[in-house]
Design the sequence.
């Protein structure tokens, strides 16, 4: 009986992930494909480019019967693992002052650069409640690259709370060049209205490595004006003259208003596409720029 319950719980989680492929696919374009024949009623196959054609994500359908005892045992074990992982993560968040969502090709970088995958996990009530409590006790949240995608999909940015995405919600989508970009860009501090940016001055310019396929920030005119009015635009891609730009390659993805990073209205949530964590002394000697951004140090100092 216990095995059946755990298998049911796991299939519920799997079906929840499969639902991601049913919603808000307008930002996928022609590079998105699905197959319902190979594995069952709601099995999903995503393809971001020919490079990832072999990458498959299997979700067991709601009506599929688990007839093999070994498969049932596996599902039960996986359900236990998922549940224990979520509860352990909740305990850690409850003890934390900072949550950092890192970049990296987690979950095969699917779907939407793994942002939707991460966001789905954090919509679990146990985790979403813990994030809410962390913000109530004056905690900080940081998201870089895929992590930025995740907190955008959650609604933490730009709205400051976990919320359902609407058709016109701000989001991150495919680069204008329709492929992955890996380069060094220049960004300008547009606002230091955040603990993460407390050591910076508006107008300062830094170099930052970028590496993403889905980094284009888009939003409605209303949301853009709100970001401007509230000082929530933290960093912008700039050209050689230091002016915010939409032009490639200075703006590597075509983000609206040249936006590279934004903060919540109270400044405690910060998300950006550039990998500030990838710099250390001795790197990028052939691209002259100031790379030494004290983002992480500023976050720690906020609690000292």
Sequence:
């Amino acid at each position: 009986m216990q095995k059946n319950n755990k298998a049911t719980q796991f299939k519920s989680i799997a079906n929840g992930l499969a639902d991601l492929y049913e919603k808000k696919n307008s930002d996928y374009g022609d590079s998105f494909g699905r197959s319902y024949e190979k594995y069952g009623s709601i099995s999903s196959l995503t393809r971001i480019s020919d490079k990832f054609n072999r990458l498959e994500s299997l979700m067991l359908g709601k009506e599929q019967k688990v007839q093999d005892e070994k498969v049932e045992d596996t599902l039960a074990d996986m359900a236990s693992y998922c549940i224990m992982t979520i509860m352990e993560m909740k305990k850690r968040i409850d003890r934390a002052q900072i949550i950092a969502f890192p970049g990296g090709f987690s979950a095969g970088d699917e779907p939407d650069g793994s942002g939707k995958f991460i966001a789905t996990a954090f919509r679990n009530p146990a985790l979403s409640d813990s994030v809410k409590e962390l913000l109530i006790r004056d905690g900080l949240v940081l998201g870089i690259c895929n992590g930025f995608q995740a907190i955008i999909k959650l609604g933490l940015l730009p709205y400051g709370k976990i919320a359902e995405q609407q058709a016109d919600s701000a989001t991150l989508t495919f680069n204008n060049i329709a492929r992955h970009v890996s380069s060094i860009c220049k960004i300008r501090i547009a606002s230091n209205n955040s603990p993460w940016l407390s050591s910076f001055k508006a107008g300062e310019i830094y170099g930052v490595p970028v590496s993403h396929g889905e980094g284009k920030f888009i939003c409605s005119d209303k949301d853009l004006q709100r970001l401007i009015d509230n000082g929530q635009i933290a960093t912008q891609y700039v050209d050689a003259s230091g002016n915010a730009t939409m032009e490639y390659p200075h703006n590597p993805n075509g983000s609206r208003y040249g936006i590279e990073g934004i903060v919540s209205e109270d400044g405690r949530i910060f998300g950006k596409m550039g990998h500030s964590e990838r710099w250390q002394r001795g790197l990028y000697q052939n691209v002259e720029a100031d790379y030494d951004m004290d983002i992480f140090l500023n976050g720690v100092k906020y609690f000292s």
